[in-house]
Amino acid sequence: MSKTCLLSHARLPDDLNDPAAGEIAERPARILLTGATGYLGAYLLAALLDRSDATLVCLVRASDAAEGLARIEANLARYDLRVDLARVEVVTGALDQHRLGLDDAVWTKLAADIDAIVDAAANVNFLAPLDRLMPINVGGPLNLLRLAATTRPKPVHLSSSYSVFNEASYKGVTHVPEDALIGDGEGFNGGYPASKWIAERVGDAARDRGWNVTIHRLGYLWGDTRSGQSKPDDVVTLNVRACLAMGQAQDVDFLMHITPVDFAAAAMAQVAVASANSNRHYHVITEAPITWRELVQGIRKNGHPMELVPFAAWHGALRGMLAAHREFMPLVLASALDPKRTAKSNIQAMQFDASHLRNVLAPVGLTCPPLDRRLIGTYVDAMIRGSTATGQGLDVLRD
């Protein structure tokens, strides 16, 4: 999509009314949460309940509230999260539909009694074109801004991605502060980062017109620091699992901004539960990135031999495993898009300043754990356990 097209989407629609007058609650008593049936959403639901006394009203696609609650429970169980749902309510609807797919009575009630909105929903698909991602990733935040402006003002917390800095204006930039985006929307190689760039620009435009909008830019979300569990279809998880099975890793190098999902959720929640923290940008991104080779070295130090080989040789070995491990097919397809590894992204050389976030988290002693040998071992052990439990056992090499 061209620069002109991106910019045309990065604006507020003419029929979007300015926020209603009124005071924002200092401590929200009722929070609308989207994305509770997703990866980040599961941890965010748990963190919001843990760090506040608020009732969470979760927007869920379902035939009724009971089915919606069952979906939330199943998602929490998927990540071994044990949560008391006594303060959780469900409204059935859809983020990408007019008025969130709610009837007038439910919309009016939400507009009157919700104190804050936290958006953790996203269509995270790095292969899909922009037009398929726009309804959720851009249309969703716009629908939430409409709700936030109705009856009384409500702060809106939008989850974004560090991939917005792959925009052309940031080429060569190595230090990134927690500031508003610049640029015209050029340089993106995929629809997902472009969609998050548009959503951020929409959020900034709303803030300029009187909305209270907080942007949470997330790093690469990986496993839970306690259990090591991550999304089984996560590309880094699949990649490391393949390397463990082959005893080989790609001889490439770049910075990886791996941010534990439980830390990211706790940080977002800590910001969202006090209005004094809102209406700005935060980097929910590790400030201690490691390189791919450092990750491989950490795996070796946990007792797993792993040889660095040229990418073409690694890709060939991966293809040879497909008969026994069809779960690695997404890796083969993704690698085929750039077989010579010529594509470089801005974020692979960036250091992100998270000083605003650190200032909010310091009083409660919350810090982002480094991806050290111990945490790498926790993640690898969880991958091996998960492979055995799902019948996708890996013949993992050990020293």
Question: If you had to describe this structure to a student in words, what would you say it looks like?
Answer:
The mean pLDDT is 93. The chain has helices at 3-9, 39-50, 65-78, 104-113, 130-137, 139-149, 191-208, 235-246, 261-272, 292-301, 311-320, 329-336, 355-361, 373-389; strands at 30-34, 55-60, 88-92, 116-119, 156-161, 175-176, 213-218, 220-222, 248-250, 255-256, 258-260, 281-284, 290-291, 307-309, 351-352. α2 (39-50) links the parallel β1 (30-34) and β2. The chain has 399 residues and is α/β, with parallel strands linked by helices. The protein has a domain at 3-21 and 28-221 and 259-284: NAD(P)-binding Rossmann-like Domain (Rossmann fold, 3-Layer(aba) Sandwich). It has a seven-stranded parallel sheet, sandwiched between helices. A two-stranded parallel sheet has the order 6-15. 39% of the residues lie in helices and 14% in strands. α5 (130-137) runs parallel beside α7 (191-208), α6 runs parallel beside α7 and α10 (292-301) crosses α14. The termini are far apart.
- Residues in helices, as a percent range: 25-40%
Number of strands: 15
Rounded to the nearest angstrom, the radius of gyration is: 21 Å
CATH topology of the domain at 3-21 and 28-221 and 259-284: Rossmann fold
Encode the helix/strand succession as letters.
HEHEHEHEHHEEHEEHEEEHEEHEHHEHH
The average pLDDT is 93
Poorly predicted spans: none
CATH class of the domain at 3-21 and 28-221 and 259-284: Alpha Beta
CATH evolutionary superfamily of the domain at 3-21 and 28-221 and 259-284: NAD(P)-binding Rossmann-like Domain
